[in-house]
Amino acid sequence: MRVLISIPNTGWISKHCVFSLLKLQQDKRYLTTIILPTHSPIDNNRNLIIIDFLKGGFDYLLIIDADNPPTKNPLDLIEYDKDVMIFPTPQWHLTKGALARGQYPIYWNCMDKVKGGWREHNKKEGLQEIDAGGTGCILIARRVLTKIKKPFERVWTEDGVVEKGSDFYFCEKAKEEGFKIFCHYDYPCMHFKEQELTEVIKAFGARDISATAQPNINTKEYWDKEWSKRKKRVYPYYKKIVSLTKDKKVLDFGCGRGDLMALLDNPYGIDISKKAIEIIQDQGMEGEVGSKPKGKWDAIVCTEVLEHLDNDKEMIEKFFKHTNTLIYAVPNNCLPPSVEPEHRRIYTKKYIKQITPNLKQIWEIGNYLLVLAHK
What is the reported pTM? Predict the structure, then answer.
């Protein structure tokens, strides 16, 4: 089997790419040819590479950008015989909105199509089918490139602004032809970028958790004042919770003003705030002031609460003394104490797995993580 390996470049190649090439050259499993084309712009370079690939009768094309060296041997993945294989690459992305929420400023360039755009693929382990990915390091089977005309091109608006990048557009065209896109998280790439460091300081400073050394402001008095002025809110995960608790007797722990309770079939609320309980009772719902779960329940729901507590792990353990099913929601890797003083920590999937016994599933819904645990 013949493989064309190409590093498109403008005269500079990372030394790590050179190391990768030396290792690839020693791989005796396949007959490899290495080229280092310097045509520009990059889409033109890639398309010229593909013309050479097709004329040369190669079976697979491996393109590695000059700043995108793989950490393992990409040729290992030929044995999967996939149409398109993306090698996950970290990308820096910081917007004002993300900075304001203290979101993590780096993402992996393996994406799923969602309404209105793209979302980072959720399950980051092993081989995964995705909808699109960056093409800084990509392995493509010949059957794909014989079907797609002008593989790498951008889509422009009438005003001459890029509407769609050539990498995602290539993946879209491949899927339209019936091909599938995969990535493998055990084969990530390095990514060498010029980055202004004060932006890095701002991004990670916004995620500073040293504020947890400060006293917890989430007192009864604080929340009495907050619930006196806060308006109704409907979170994007409410619909999922309603479906999970249909016809169940549910304790809404930290019920607040009862926005979720009003949607549940058979709810009862507990909150540290007397004002919150007054609000739900005025709406005809039942509840009481308290700081601990009590009674026996088909399910306990706890939304937008754990991030306010100093003892989240202990509270989760208490929940399971009163139910076999726990559903809770927390912000997804954002809104640390430095951004939101009410919060005591950042929640990630890794952290949730550490603190949640009987964990069954974690959903990403909007900017939140919804967690189901059942014993």
Answer: 0.74
